[in-house]
Every structure is written in structure tokens, then in C-alpha cells.
Design brief:
Layout (H helix, E strand, L loop, with lengths): L24 H6 L10 H9 L10 H16 L4 E9 L6 E9 L2 E3 L4 E4 L2 E4 L3 E7 L1
Antiparallel strand pairs: 1-2, 1-6, 3-4, 4-5
């Protein structure tokens, strides 16, 4: 017979077949699931990979046409417009070009912007402006 040290005397005769339910496959698989060693790293990688547009530079002729149309808007009561405009990205350089088809609720000459519904569009961000008359 093998002689055991006194450290193992209290456990050597314990039945190793435990009397509890086996672990579910989902719980067992979760033990081997990957973990994020660097918190927020995946979000940063996605942010860097996210594409943004650069703001187009309009010609003097295009700026003149937009200004003329803004002056026409001042004479109309509640004009409906089709507009392409640039929105700067808050997290990185560039932004996105958006379109809106809505009624102008206010032309703010002091702050140089249009209000269409809940959107506020600075004049300098307007890329294309069409008036539905």
C-alpha cells in the first residue's frame, strides 16, 4: 500500500464522482469565449476604419447660384426646398453629405443658417439648393 502524507488524508477517500448536474453546453462554451484584453479597442478600430467624406469646395459660380437662391427664399412665405449639405463629423476629420426635402421654417440671417424642421443648416455647408415653387 502507498503511504500518503497527512496533507491528503482528509481527501484521499472522497468519491470523485460529484453529485451535481453537469454544466450546460452554453455555459461550458462560455469558458472558452474570447475576452477583450483591451477595453474599447474594438470600438477604436471600427472608428478608425469608418469612412468620412471631405467637404467639397464649391466654385465661385456655384456659391453665387446658392446665394441667389437664398435671396429668392427670403421672398417666399413657406418655401419647400431640396438641399444637399455637409455635416462635419465630431470624432474625426471630414463628415458626411446629407440631403433634405422639407419646408424652410426660418431663415436666420444673423447666424447665417436655414432651419428646416429640426435641422439647422449653416449657409456655408450648403452644396446644392433647389426651390420647389
Amino acid at each position: 500500500m502507498i503511504k500518503h502524507s497527512h496533507r491528503y488524508d482528509d481527501i484521499i477517500d472522497i468519491d470523485f464522482h460529484l453529485k451535481h448536474k453537469p454544466m450546460s453546453i452554453d455555459n461550458r462554451a462560455a469558458q472558452f469565449a474570447p475576452f477583450a484584453a483591451l477595453k474599447g479597442y474594438d470600438d477604436q478600430v471600427k472608428e478608425v476604419a469608418r469612412y468620412t467624406d471631405t467637404q467639397p469646395i464649391l466654385s465661385d459660380e456655384a456659391i453665387t447660384q446658392i446665394n441667389e437662391k437664398l435671396n429668392v427664399l427670403l421672398t417666399l412665405e413657406i418655401p419647400k426646398i431640396f438641399i444637399d449639405y455637409f455635416v462635419a463629423d465630431h470624432n474625426k476629420s471630414g463628415g458626411s453629405i446629407r440631403q433634405i426635402n422639407d419646408y424652410v421654417t426660418k431663415i436666420d440671417l444673423y447666424n447665417h443658417c436655414l432651419h428646416c424642421g429640426k435641422q439647422t443648416i449653416p449657409f456655408e455647408n450648403i452644396l446644392k439648393l433647389e426651390i420647389d415653387i
